Task: structure prediction
Amino acid sequence: MITATADLTHLPTPLRHIIEPCLTPDPHQRPDAQTLLATIAAPPAVPPQWPQAIHALIRQQHTELHRYTQLEPTTVLPGPHDLDPTKIFTTDATQATEPTQATDPLEPEPEPEATAHPPRSWRAPLAVLALVAVAVFGAWWIVTALSDPDGTSGTGNTGATHQASPSDDAAEPGHAFVDVSRGDCFRNAGTMRDMDFKPAGCGGGDVFEVLRAFENTTDRSVCDYVDHVEWRYAVRGPDMTVCLVYRHRDGAAYNADRGDCVGGGPDGKATVEQCRPGGFVVVSRIEGESSPADCERVPHHKRDHYFTVDGSPELNVRLCMGRIAPDTA
Result:
């Protein structure tokens, strides 16, 4: 190397351009390590073993993880309900400043660049607008409730229905439902059009049982989410809405519905029982006045049972029943 020149003719041209300067006789003219590394540059990329879309997703997730490690201690991260197993979400305070990768079908959507405005600055005015909207709606609801507390404005008093209306006259303090509790029973001393409830024992039947009572309202829709409700009644002074079910003297089968199985109890009353081969199942329930001919038109009808209520035909119920096939096993 000092007395002769090395023969590098058999080396590839790119490699010879790197080695020749290193064999210069004058040591001061030889490249240092930094120059040599710059000349060599980065090694050629190894062909990826995974599809390009997977590598793009990995690079994106590495970038997102790096952002999380650089968060301020006060940054609020998204909750578990926001997480997606195919990507990592960031908040407005942690937007990317690095260039994004090329768009790929499996990559998350590119996130907007961070701005100079403080993150979430829009939330305060939005919260104020929301409070104003709630206040306006609340005021409208109160005015509507005071002007039409029973929700029947323009319809008049239609009498007793499955949503019985409160009397048009203001009730006197001390009506039957003051201090009412779930499970209390009442007998109607009036008609279904002009109801007059009186406290009664539950054992004898032909009574209305309270399933739920709501104070300070005459809105009967509050009973919509109470199970097994058959009648809703509202009264004023003090305002009260009660969700009721009628208990018939001839047995619990009065409240049976389609698909329930009916039999006779030891006291001769019709009861709801577990379905069994050879038993009877309700295929139709007819409310109000009816005749046996109404059940004869029902498919699979074999027998019927008619519950009547004296003075209140609106409460009559006829059960049309079919017979369950005997067990042939």
